[in-house]
Amino acid sequence: MGDGLSRRAVLRGASVAVGAAALGGLWGMGAPPAFAGVSRHREVVDDARLVWKRLPTGWQDGPFLANAFLGVQVYKSPQPQTLKFMLSHTQVQDQRIQWEAGIGLSRLPIGYLTLTLAGAVTGVDWALDLWNAELAGTITTTQGSVAFSAYVHNDTGVLVVALEPSAGEATAAWGFQPLESATTRTVRKPPEYTANPKPTLGTSGATKYAEQPLHAGGGYTTAWQETRIGTRRLFAATVAYSFPKATSTGDAVQKVRQTLATRPEVLVADHRRWWNAYYQRSFISVPDKLIQRFYWIQLYKIAAATRANAPVVSEWGPWFPEVGNSWTAVWWNLNVQVTYPLVNSTNHAELDAVTETFRRDHANLVQSVPPAYRDGDTYALSHPGDWRLRPGGTRTVGIPGPTTKNDHTGNLTWGLHNVWLAYRHSMDKRILRDVLYPTLAKALNFYRHFLAMGDDGYLHLPMTRSPEYADAADCTYDLSLIRWAARTLIESAATLRIDDPRIPAWREILAKLVPYHQTQPDGVLIGDGVPLAESHRHFSHLLWLHPLREKLWDRPEDRDIMIRTFTHWQSQRVNWHGYSFAAASSMSSIMDAPEDALAFLRFFLDRNIVHDTQLTPNTMYREGSNFAIESPITAAQSLVDMMVQGAAGVLKVFPSVSAKWAEASISQLRTEGAFLVDASRRDGKTEWVRVHSEAGEPLKLDHGITGAIEVRDEWGRQLPYRAEGPHTISVPLAAGKSVIVNRPGARPDLKPRDVAALESAPAWGLPA
Length: 768
Description:
- By secondary structure, the protein is of the alpha+beta class.
- It is built from 18 helices and 35 strands.
- The strands form eight sheets. Strands 11-12-13-14-9-8-7-6-1-35 form a ten-stranded mixed sheet, covered by helices on one side. The protein has a six-stranded antiparallel sheet with strand order 15-27-28-29-34-31.
- The longest helix has 21 residues, at 476-496.
- It is globular.
C-alpha cells in the first residue's frame, strides 16, 4: 500500500470503531478530518491507544485527559449508576506562604463531575485515542446505553463531552461534587491549619458554578453547562483560578459559554490540529509492541502534563489522586529532573516548562537561600516548592555541616542541568546567555561559601546529605554537581565571550576539588567514609555517570570505575523504585550493555512490584498509594537511549539495541548539537542513517554500519568525510544540511516504518 495505511493498520483501526465510527457523528456531520491522509506516525499512535472493556476504579487504571492545565480522569463511583469525572488544575494551589509549600502553597483538590445514569453500569467499551487526545466509547446500563466522546480542548482548557443516549438513558444528568479545599499532606502540618472556606454554588444564566474562595484571597471556580442538539447533548466544563483578585467565576463562566457558542466540529478540529502535528515531530518503532505502545502513551502523557507556558510538573501532573496523596507540590530532589529530558530527545521543546520556569521566576530562588548567605549573588532551591520556585515558610536549603545540613543542596544545580540539555539540543545561545549562565553561577556560589582547602591540597565540602540515604562529608552527589557546574560555566563563558572575574575561582574548583572517595571492589562511595551498604532507590552517587556524563565509556580509563560503581548499586534492588530501573536501563545503554538495558526496562514495564511500587494498567505509577508521574516518563527516555545518544561530542545511532530486536525505525530524534536523526535497522544491522544539522556543529557520527559505506547529501552528491574509527566518521555539515550514510549502491526508503512485532501484546488499559 506504499505510504498509505497498511492492512495491519486497517484491521487495528477497525477495532476502534466504537470510538471512531460510532462517535464521529457526535461532533457534527461537517467535522473535517483530523489529518489529511494517513502517516506511519498515526499508524503507531493509533496502535498505542488504551482500551477499557472493564469499568476503571480510580486514577491507577482510568483514562486521563489534560492540556497541561485542566486534568480529567474518568472512573466508577460508589453509586452503581454514576461515573466520576475527576477534575484538577495545575495552577490551583493555596497561597498561605507562611507555611512550607507542601502545606501553605499546596496543590488543592477541586472536585468531580458526576454523570448519573438511569440504570446501573453493566459494561463499558472505551478507547483513549492518543492521536486526537479524545476518550470515546459506550456505557451500557441496565436501562440502555450512552455513546460519548470527550476531550480537554488543547487551547482553551475546557472539558467537552458529547453524549448520545438511548431512549432508556434519556434522563442521564450531570452534577458536580466539590472536595474540601485543603492540603491532603499531613507531614509537618501545623496544628493551626484550617481548610479554606466552603464553596458557593450558583448559576449565571444557564451556566452553573461552584466558587471556591481562599483564605489568602482569590480562589478558583468550576463552571459547567449542557446544551442539546437534536438527540445529541453537548456538555462543557472548566476550572479557572485567580490570585490575588477574585475573578475566577467570571472567567470560568465565560469560557464555558464561548465553548458552547462555537460549532462542535470547529472546536474539535482546532483541538485535534495541535495533537496531530505534535506526534509527527519524531518517531520510534521497535519489535516489542508492549514497549512501543508504552512509549507513545508517555509521549501523550507528557504533552498532557506540561507545556512551556504551563506550570512545571508536580508529582501528580495535572491529575488529582483521590486516595493516598501526600505529594502536593513540586519535588526538585530528582522528580522534575528525570521527567524532562524526554522533551529534548523527542524534539518537543514546546513542552519545556523547566527552562521557562527558571527564566520567569529565578528571582524567587533567593527565598531558598539561608538568610546569612543572601548576598545578592547566591541562589538555591528547596523542595517541595510551588511552580513559581517558592519554598514557603522558612524552609531553605540546609547549611553544610553536621547540625544544619539537609538533602536540598544539589536541587538547583541538577535542575539547571535540564536547562543545559535544552541548550545543547537546540544550540540556542539565548538559553545559555539569559537563563543557564547567570543562574548556574549563583547556584555554584552557594557551594563556594563552604568549600575549604584541606591539608591534602584539595577543596573539601562539609557534611551534606545524599538524597534519602545518608549524611556524608565530600558527598559524591554534591561533588559531581559542583564539578559539572564549574566546567559548564567555564565553557559557557568562552562560548558567550564573557570575561567573567569569577572564572579563576571556577578553574580552581575544577583543578582542586577532592576526587570521589572510592573503594575496591565497590567503586565510588556515598561520600567520605560512607559506603553504599544497602539498597538505595536514588542513583545520586552515580550522577557523574548519568546524566552528567563526566566519566565516559569511550575513554577506556573510565570504564573500571563506571562498572564497579554501577555493579555494586544494581546488585541491591530490594528498595528500588520505578525510576531506579529506568536509570539502570539508561546507564546500561551508556555502557554498551544492550541486553541489560532491555531487561531493566522490561522488568519495570512488566508491572513487577518492588518495595510496594508498581506501574499501573494505564501506565501511571504508584509508590504505596501515592501517585508519582516521573518514573514512566523517564522509562520512555530509556528507550530513546537505546536508539540514539548524542553526548560528549559523538552521535551514536542504535548504540544499545538488543540482539532480540532485528529491526527498528527512528525519525527526527534530537540529540545534543541540534542534530535530527533518522535511521533504520533491518535484519539485525543498521541499514541507513540520516542526520540533519540545525546549527552546523561538528558532527562525529558512529553510524553503526559495518564494512564499506557511502556518504552523500540529500541530493545524492558524495560528501567528504574522515574515518575516526570502526563505523565512526567526521563529516563537515553546515547548518540546514543533511548527510545520509548507507552501504555502497543502496538507495534505501528513508521514510519511517512500523516494524513487525515479535509477538502479540495486550493493549494498555483494562482490555478484556
